[in-house]
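Fill-in record for Sodium:solute symporter.
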Amino acid sequence: MTGDYAVIALYIAGMIGVGWYGLRLAKTKSDYLVAGRRLGWFMYSGTMSAVVLGGASTVGGVKLGYKFGISGMWLVVSIGVGILVLHTLFARRLVKLKVYTVGEMLDLRYGGRTSKVSGVVMWGYTLMLTVTSTLAFATIFKVLFDLPNWAGIAVGGSIVVLYSVLGGMWSITLTDIAQFVIKTIGILAILLPVAISSAGGFSGMSEKLDASFFSFTSIGTDTIITYFVIYTFGLLIGQDIWQRVFTARTPGIATSGGITSGVYCLVYGLAGALIGTAAHTLYPDLASAQDAFATIVERLLPTGVRGLVLAAALSAMMSTASGALIACATTTTSDLLTKLGLKKGGEVSRNRIATLVLGLIAIAIAMVVDDVVNALTIAYDILVGGLLVAIVGALFWKRGTRQGAYASMVAGTISVLAFMIIDGVDANTPIYWGLGTSLVVYLAVSFATPRTPDSILSVWTRRLSGAEETPISNREQEPTSA
């Protein structure tokens, strides 16, 4: 596997090198957190695709294809639909707000005091999202070096933490573009056609597999619906996704680039399911479906090419892990620590320290979690059950009040966590109970409390239309060049 080692070594060195270069660009808070809000169409589309398609979408998507056939595509397809809806309906307005976090948006709409609760919920979501991609590193390093899971997680996670800490969103953006290209070549252009061809094509797979593997609903209609509720809605409101939206240079770039990214996600989801179906055709007796991706790569591809595809999988994991990590750090510093009065040091320094500490915490958690899809489910259940109602209400219902938003976030989150304990992490019920509880509480408390003052709503309306810029005191002075 000398050729594979060389390819992976070059890839890792390149990621660290790009991260070091990003250090030169991250001079202000805006640079570090949202790449100076200067991304054009290609960079925006590539980084958006990279951040949403991580370890769960790659290793987890192939796993679902191995178990359920073509129906395993629905997890990633639901993510793609979320990206399409976000950029069709919301992206233009989000870019105009010129904020850094979801919590800041809620404070702007409701008049303050909501970002502490939303920040805690978003912190839990972004941290667990970081964990899912960090956890997936074990699969790749097990194939390459026969490392135990904890060692693979430590190696992969440390690389992500290093380049993320150095240059923040600029480092992450530049590495994401490289990762997007590698991922496209490795997964779509190499592994997909090789896997299908080795399995005998579609005719060969249909002869060896049960017909259920070629049914779009074999995974279960209730599961498909739940995927859309969790992931499509989750993509509409996640800090990691909004923070990428904030990097767009113009609202038009965000819309067009995001729609392109959504279509790419749909293709990626179908590809993962087909690779998993081919893996089941070739290796029907694997001890764990989680090993389907690593097995098909190890046994089908020649040295060097195998290294490139493994680098593609690493790209998927690292892009999502780094995006979630910077989002978690942003939420920590902007929505939590600042509200507690902890403002010592410069903005960039505080965010670097937060990124480092949270990255180490994510690595530690990943070492004790053993299922990438379950970890992702935990993250999105908390996010959607706790925040969806308050965020959608902020954007579309003027009668919603700060007290209603606050109460709905608390009630929805508690309900999700309670039903995870009662029915299990992988059950469908937590998200529905969380959403239902959150909606009822939001409506009831909003109607029972005074309307949001016109002074707050008027500022919100002007900002949402782009007619009013962020106050000078809250703006970062941008360098004239990067």
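KEY FINDING: The longest helix spans residues 149-198.
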